[in-house]
Amino acid sequence: MTPLRVVSGSANPALAAAVAERLDADALGVVLERFPDGEIRPIVGHVSGQDVYVVQPTAPPVNDNFVELLLLLDACRRSRAARVTAVVPYLGYSRQDRRTVSGQALGLRVVVEAIAGAGAERLVVIDPHTPALESVSPIPVETLTAVPLLAERVSPVRGGDTVIVAPDAGAATLAERYAAITGHSVALVRKYRENESSVSAIALLGDVRHRPAVIVDDMICTGATIEAAVGMLLHHAADIVVAASHGPLAGAAHLHRLDVRRVLVTDTVAHAAVAPPFEVCSVAPLLAEAIARMHEDLPLHDLFAPARMGPRSA
Ligand code: R5P
Fold first, then answer.
1. Has 191 been annotated as catalytic?
2. How far is the centre of ligand 1, averaged over its atoms, from the C-alpha of 14 (Å)?
3. Ligand 1 centre from 217 Cα, in Å?
4. Whole-model pTM over 0.90
5. Which of 19, 133, 134, 281 lies most in the core, judged by the most C-beta atoms within 10 Å?
6. What confidence tens digit (pLDDT) does each residue in 300-312 have?
């Protein structure tokens, strides 16, 4: 069988190493040269004839990590890898899946076409922001989900009266996926985004009074969405926990001051130091299992099972 090779970009080497360890393989490091003007030049080792999985989430700094991903894919292809798969557990630009004002680009499409053009035959992502990813991608997309992992970790608030809260309409389907696993009911906050870092919660649909609440979202970036939802729930819910698949946490330090008991994110984005209320759940077991199956051309459908209940609608 073609040998399996995990290639680690510089965005999240700890995750790549954890995945490789579970696969009983070494993560092939990359020499990353940097030119004085900021240009990067990654150099991969021996991948000729191998089934290569390039692990590189496009986390902040998004553009640097994205260009590094493209260069790594091209390097693997030109080094005659037998097959190249882009493992991008957090895929930046996913929120640019439609044009909301004239003059905008369709960022998501540009990004996935570049990944395909650089040499990836498949793309692996976790909980993408939008189901549009599959339809704009020229290469097959394997969509994994961290929802069961996170749902299990919020189980201390499991109980008849806990409520799963979507912090905006786009998170409603995600909340239903948590609810299907935990058996809890769902409430919805209606939000209004004033600008990239300012969000207002304008309505609460559903009964949260004196009930433990778990706010769920696909990602926490500035934290404005979560802060607005917490503000809406604070005087009603008994106890608040937050869970998000991705934590790029660009300017989300203010979440430490919020009156929430726990904020769970995964390690799709690397976190240098984590202090309460933040907690990190690793997706390494999920990625390792998916890669092991892809390597053997085995089906992934039971890994996909929770996602089949419905991807995010917006
Ligand atoms: C928006 O549609 C997304 O699902 C997230 O709610 C949003 O991207 C979170 O960003 P922030 O933390 O900056 O509010």
1. yes
2. 25
3. 8
4. yes
5. 19
6. 987 755 443 333 4
